[in-house]
């Protein structure tokens, strides 16, 4: 299968890395068109995909991703549309447009998926929300889901909640990174070497997330399992509450979504 890609910035490059790592596509079957800053060229040197300057190779692609900035996505789709073949699946991970708006600038036979991934797709551990055009046949939808699942977990959602989904799944990695950095700073403050502090916090987060997913236990129940009466963890919990931890996190989601 040939896959086309428009835009190899933060999200585009994360997806390209994930697709190649999962062997969903081989480098010689992945056709990437970048912008003007040289980012795509630098990535091509690292990953060896086919760097293209025009949309001609898209005629051979079954799936085409677009990962450009929100303001230019429809204009670029208009330019690329003549090079998409009948029954191409177009997966837009760009914000700022709807499936209907994309369909309006594309040929009617092109199937449109609007997906919002997050950067962990680069290590095939993404969380991807996907909305599908109403008229998409089931086998086409399955094909799109199959490709997206090679990048992480996929949840089908209606397009009207895709924005908020993107805030929680797409912005939160930055919140978690800050939390991880702060935890590591705390560890350093208490005398643990810097590199070891990052390793401890990252592995702890991975393990906590895995436990939550696999046990399906409520987060409160998992927290209760760590907080023994009069113990050190509950003292730390009180310090977090005193400093408005929950409010800060909820407000971060609200502000990011506004
Ligand atoms: N970052 C995330 O975590 C995330 C999560 C979910 C969704 N998204 C959405 O994904 C889209 C991309 O976000 P991003 O963070 O990856 O932005 P970005 O880093 O700015 O990447 C956008 C890329 O589009 C390229 N581009 C511009 N014009 C182009 C053209 N005519 N042909 C091909 N490529 C072109 C740019 O290339 P040059 O710079 O070389 O010109 C740039 O590398 C946005 O709509 C964003 O809302 C992002």
Most strands sheet = 8 strands, mixed
Q: Could you tell me the number of beta strands?
A: 8
At CATH level 3, the topology of the largest domain is: Rossmann fold
CATH architecture of the largest domain: 3-Layer(aba) Sandwich
Q: Helix-strand pattern, N to C?
A: EHEHEEHEHEEHEHHHHH
Q: Write down the CATH class of the largest domain.
A: Alpha Beta
Number of domains: 2
- What's the rounded overall pLDDT mean? 96
- Give the full name of the CATH homologous superfamily of the largest domain: NAD(P)-binding Rossmann-like Domain
User: Termini separation (Å)?
Assistant: 39 Å
Radius of gyration over alpha carbons? Answer: 21 Å
What are the distinct ligands in this entry? NADP nicotinamide-adenine-dinucleotide phosphate
Query: What overall geometry do the principal axes of the alpha carbons give?
Result: elongated
- Kindly report the spatial arrangement of strands forming the biggest sheet: 3-2-1-4-5-6-7-8
What is the percent of helical residues? 40-55%
* Uncertain stretches of 5 or more adjacent residues: none
Q: Helices and strands: which structural class?
A: alpha/beta
Outline the fold blueprint:
Layout: E1 3-6, H1 10-21, E2 30-33, H2 39-47, E3 50-51, E4 63-66, H3 73-80, E5 89-92, H4 99-105, E6 111-116, E7 126-132, H5 138-149, E8 152-156, H6 162-189, H7 194-215, H8 219-226, H9 232-242, H10 245-256
Parallel strand pairs: 1-2, 1-4, 2-3, 4-5, 5-6, 7-8
Antiparallel strand pairs: 6-7
Helix pairs in contact: 6-7, 6-10
Bound molecules: NADP nicotinamide-adenine-dinucleotide phosphate (NAP).
NADP nicotinamide-adenine-dinucleotide phosphate is lined by residues 6-12, 33-37, 39, 67-70, 72, 76, 93-95, 116-119, 166, 170.
